[in-house]
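Note to self: keep these together.
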Amino acid sequence: MSDDNFLGVFGHVAIDMICSARRFPEPNTCEAIFDRKIEFGGTAGNLAVHAASLGVRIALASYVGGDFPVEYRNFLRSKGIDLTDLLTMEDRRTSMVIMVSDGSHNQIGFVDQGVMLDQGKLPIQEHTVTSSEVVHVGTGRPTYALQICKLAKEAGKRVAFDPAQEIHYVYDAKSFSKVIKRSDMFFCNESELKVALKYLRLKRAEDLLDIVGVVVNTLGKRGSRILSRDEGTIKIPPCKPRRVVDTTGAGDAYRAGFYAGLSKDFGLGDCGRLASAAASFAVESYGAQTNLATWKDVQQRAFRKR
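Structure:
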């Protein structure tokens, strides 16, 4: 593989079980599932696939188990993704996510960490750091994330920190603080932002700019905003999809669109619009890696009102 990747992605490569119910059950009760699908997933896998479809040169770093489907590996390879650091631990199981959506597209997820539970004890995947211009530190063990950040900064790489929902139950104030202080960008949604501010004892999102240069904050149906030390706050309007079928992986597609713009030297505002457009394609079908947009598709949708 080439040694000139733009983006190195760390995080989970997992199998998703996506279920649909009309409502979430009360404790100690049941609700009927009316649809269930098994799809390729994981935060790192989703981001890598969407970004590669948009023409971004990608290296993917993760650990999977001996049960990892050969079809998934072949799919990643077909996208031209550098899989040097997608390592198989034969005696472990691959991470799995059970995601349940209700009739309003709210989601509840259950994560079986599998092999990734021991990530902090496994070898550092250096190739993904050294071969990439930007290193995206996603889900995984905080001790491992910290080692990757240190290695990336020593190598002069730009670092983006994106703990996603794991900020709630994997990180604590001490581990979160250590990683974000070695990052250049921070990705979060509304609930994750609240936790980040609590961990750091800050009051406003803008206060994060004393630590990182850029904060990318998604706001659901209200779009997103990008806070920049150099450019202030940039509001990004939502990009309307043709239909909403399944929101699984929309945030990962958003990040892919952002990086696609960044790799082509777009400004932060346009990167946000491209991100919003990429996410709008992701929600139009079941599964996090099924409705893959091209760079042309995303550009046309992002800038169609200009």
